[in-house]
Amino acid sequence: DAAGLSNRSCSADPSTRTWDDLCITMPTPWPLGLILSPPVVSRLNEFFALLLKVRMVTGKLGSVWAKFCKGRTPNIQLSFLRARMSFLVDHIFYYLQVDVVDAEYSK
């Protein structure tokens, strides 16, 4: 898969799960099970794992920048690079939420 996500199932043992193993599990009574079949839930898990990873990159970028700038004056070129990286990650997240999720929801 281009996003680096694989078809994986949720780990049965919660103590062995990591952020990469986070997934949605729920009973799907009839007729909901017709729409939310196991392959659909698997794809939803992959998509929401991607959203989580993008959001975590946003947070990590901010925390790394804060640690880097602590006690020093940031270089203007590094500030520009950080702003561009932040812009890119924020807009990828926005695209996934608005143009992918909301567009599909409104159909």
Q: Please tell me how large the radius of gyration is.
A: 18 Å
What is the H/E string? HHH
Content of β-strand: under 5%
Q: Tell me, rounded to a whole number, the average pLDDT.
A: 78
Q: Cα distance, first to last residue?
A: 25 Å
Describe the structure.
- It contains 3 helices and no strands.
- The two termini are 25 Å apart.
- The protein is elongated, with a radius of gyration of 18 Å.
- Helix content is 62%, strand content 0%.
- It is mainly α.
- Helix 2 (38-69) runs antiparallel to helix 3 (76-105).
- The longest helix is centred in the middle third of the chain and has 32 residues, at 38-69.
Labels describing this entry:
107 residues, 62% helix, disordered N terminus
Explain the layout of strands and helices:
Layout: H1 32-35, H2 38-69, H3 76-105
Helix pairs in contact: 2-3
Short description:
The chain is built from three helices and no strands. By secondary structure, the protein is an all-alpha fold.
